[in-house]
Structures are given as C-alpha cells and as structure tokens.
C-alpha cells in the first residue's frame, strides 16, 4: 500500500479525481461548484458527483441511510456496508468511466468520510474502514483530497441557517451528538496528518471567496502548472 496516500491500487486512468471532505456545513458543495466553473472555463470536462448517491442504486441507499427509507435504522455494521455499496457502484458506473475518458471528477465526500464518520465517529477500527474502502474503490484513488476544516458549531450554524424556512428535517447522521461530530472533525485532521501527499487542509471558517482562491491555487499548482 502507498503509505502516503492511504489507498493501494494502480491508477490507470488519465483524468483527475478530486475529493472534498469535511464536517457538515464545511462548504464542500459550495466550493466544488466554484471549482467546477473555473475548470470548465478552461475547457476541462468535469463530472460532479456526491456520496452517498450519484447512481440510482446510490441514491436509493442515500434514502435508507439518511431518512430510514427502509422503515428501520440500519445497525452500525449495515451502515458501513451501505456506504461502501453506494461507493462501489459510483466508482464502477460513474467515476472510473469518466476518468478513463480523461474527465476530471469532483466528488462531494468519498472514502475518507467512512473512515472519519464510521471509524473515528462511531468507533469502528480505522484500519478496518480503510480496508473496506480499498475494496470499494479499487483503482479509483483520489489525486487530491481537499479537507475543508470547520469547527463543529460554525458548521452546524451554517446548516441551521440554510434550514430556516425549509421543511427539511435533520438527517439521521446530522442528528448525532456534538461529541460525535467533534470526533469526526478530529478524525479528518488525523487523516490529513497521516497522508500529507494526498490531503490539502483548507481553513473553511472564512468567507467562501478566499476559500475558493486557496482551493484554486492548490488545484492549479498541482495539475495545471505546466500548461
Ligand atoms: N456519511 C458518512 O457517515 N459516511 C460516509 O461514508 C459518507 C457520508 C459518504 C451525508 O450528508 C451524510 O452522510 C453526512 C456524512 C455521512 N452527514 N453528516 N453530518 P449530506 O451529503 O446531506 O451532507 P453533508 O455532506 O454533510 O453536506 P452539507 O451539510 O450540505 O455541507 P457542505 O456541502 O459541506 O456545505 P454547503 O452545502 O456548501 O454549505 C452549507 C451552507 O453553508 C449553505 O447554506 C451555504 O450557502 C453556506 N456556506 C457555505 N460556505 C460558506 C462560507 N464560507 N461562509 C458562510 N456560509 C457558507
């Protein structure tokens, strides 16, 4: 296994896989959208997707995981396997084909979410989560993972503000205790320290625009500098 990356597998595709990670309310979707417009302006084909979801199977699993669409809570072990099933499908049906034709894939959460939430948050073995992740992702190894770091209370405030006036309830995982979300944040910071080649930590407790500038610099320096 490549110790710097955290995943094994040979990358054969010519596209780029960039994943956005972080606690809820970190601004992952916002930053992905801003990065997409900059990449597309340079003529790059970008595929945006999210986890859990991104395929018909994945979106059905999303409903089960977030809103108990099956009519009962998944047990913690089922929760891990459902996230991984959604991921395996997304990789084979969306991510791998896009990378093979040279597109850039921006993924809103990926395998590190399972390590952070089910490993650090729920308390499953981090090594076990990493092993199951490798099975699910195969060769779809992220070229860069942007960790948008936000403290838990600010992230939650942003989400609460978004919910004002909407009838959407908190999902099953959002409703976990503050302590759980704090463990998740610390877990992400731990991963960023362990895999410095792949992770780029960005302070997401600022306005969206300066964050987007930092994200653009990281991505363009890494992948567009020579052209
Ligand atoms: N999960 C898991 O447990 N295991 C796994 O393996 C995977 C996921 C893959 C998915 O939820 C849940 O599944 C998630 C982890 C778990 N649960 N939690 N917690 P989701 O996809 O529905 O939600 P999310 O991934 O947590 O995303 P989010 O809450 O929508 O946050 P975000 O994408 O990071 O933020 P955003 O949508 O860009 O912004 C949120 C709000 O803040 C919005 O109103 C923005 O306008 C505002 N915003 C964004 N940036 C800023 C700045 N810089 N300043 C001020 N306001 C801002």
Search tags:
binds ligand Z5A; 12% strand; 5 strands; five-stranded parallel beta sheet; alpha/beta; 227 residues
Textual characterization of the structure:
Helices cover 52% and strands 12% of the residues. It has 227 residues and is α/β, with parallel strands linked by helices. It has a five-stranded parallel β-sheet, sandwiched between helices. α4 (111-121) packs across α7. The radius of gyration is 17 Å and the shape is globular. The model has no long low-confidence stretch (mean pLDDT 93). It binds ligand Z5A. Ligand Z5A binds next to α1, α4, α6 and α8.
Please give the order of strands in the largest beta sheet.
Answer: 2-3-1-4-5
Residue fraction in strands: 5-15%
The first-to-last residue Cα distance is: 31 Å
Structural class: alpha/beta
Name every ligand kind in the structure: ligand Z5A
> What count of helical segments does DSSP give?
8
Whole-number mean pLDDT: 93
Residue ranges: pLDDT <50 for 5 or more in a row?
none
- The radius of gyration over CA amounts to 17 Å
Number of strands: 5
- Name the overall outline: globular
Helices and strands, in order, run as EHEHHEHHEHHEH
Estimated helix fraction: 40-55%
Major sheet attributes: 5 strands, parallel
